[in-house]
Amino acid sequence: MIARELKGEYRGLAESRYAKFLIGKLLVRGDEETRDLVLPELYGHVRGFIKHPEASWILDDIYRGVATPKQKSLLLREWYGAEFAIFKSKDPSDISAKLTDILAAQPEKRQPVMHALHDLINLCIQKKTTGFTMLHDAMLQYYLNIQPGGSEATEFIELLKGDEEGDLLKNLAFTESGARIVCLALAYGNAKDRKTILKTYKNTFQMLAYDANGYRVILTAYDVVDDTVLIAKSVISELLGKDTSSEDSHENLLAMATHLKARKTLLYPFSGKAKSLLSDDDRALLDEIHAIRATTSKKDPE
User: What angle do CA 105, 107, 110 make, to 5 degrees?
Assistant: First the structure.
């Protein structure tokens, strides 16, 4: 078996311009044994790999596509600092990447952990590697552990808006963790922040509506943006096909109305959090957004 013959070499292969594709092939065509031969050789090297021009891609592919929940937790924990790469818990039930729980158990580690996490997040953004699912998961853990309205929160939203091309916000909207980050940023941000974020998605709203995660950004915008004219011009007109013929617009409307995700962006303003329209996860997210909205938005809760 090729995978067994390469045991001990996977770290070097991951850093190779071409050999990294061999790892990908082995994992796609292999079984659980293959996966469990490769993954342990990545542990302890995540912070180095995510900075590497070649290894970062195969690392994220593995994290997103083949790693088990436990393996994903072990990989993500290394973003929190060198200690998490060197010292591993011997208790399998203790393997969690939920930063809230880690800091609750060891509050004295908050400053070094948050500093290490912020530095690595910022590095990825500066390197324009903003499409990684692992990055989005790490960013969510950071955002959930900063004080709303504090300097860290303000800095984080500026970090989101600071990408002039808008690639960061656009990439975030299409993953589960990333979409939640954007929704929270819309809820916690001020009117100017919300306008800037929505402007980034110009000519992207239809893609968001059809996406498994992106539609939630639109639902959140409906609920927290005070400027209804802005919503009508920037979101709804684009969803309905503002620059298309009447016939094309009707076809687009029909396609959206019959799509399980896109239809939510059309019907939500009329039906609200109806169980027939929204999933339990949708309603849980919107409940969270509504609780935040009560302190940050002038939007009528009804």
Answer: 125
pLDDT tens, N- to C-terminus, the chain (302 residues): 788 888 889 899 999 999 999 999 999 888 899 999 999 999 999 999 999 999 999 999 999 999 999 999 999 999 999 888 776 665 555 688 999 999 999 999 999 999 999 999 999 999 999 999 999 999 999 999 999 989 999 999 999 998 878 899 999 999 999 999 999 999 999 999 999 999 999 999 999 999 999 999 999 999 999 999 999 999 999 998 776 667 777 888 899 999 999 999 999 999 999 999 999 999 999 999 999 988 876 666 55
The amino acid that residue 297 corresponds to is S
The C-alpha angle with vertex 95 and arms to 213 and 214, in degrees rounded to 5, equals 5
How far is the C-alpha of 211 from the C-alpha of 206, rounded, in Å? Answer: 9
Q: What pTM was computed for the model? A: 0.93
Q: What is the rounded distance in angstroms from the CA atom of residue 110 to the CA atom of residue 17?
A: 36
CA distances from 4 to 8, 40, 58, 114, 134 (A): 9, 13, 19, 38, 27
Q: What would you measure as the largest C-alpha separation in the chain, in angstroms?
A: 64
CB 197 within 8 A of CB 169: yes
SS3 130: coil
> Rounded to whole angstroms, how far apart are CA atoms 135 and 119?
12
Nearest C-alpha neighbor of 220 from the set 175, 168, 256, 185: 185
Distance from C-alpha of 54 to C-alpha of 67, rounded to nearest angstrom = 19
Rounded Cα distance, 97 and 118, in Å: 16
Rounded to whole angstroms, the Cα distance separating 295 from 99 reads 25
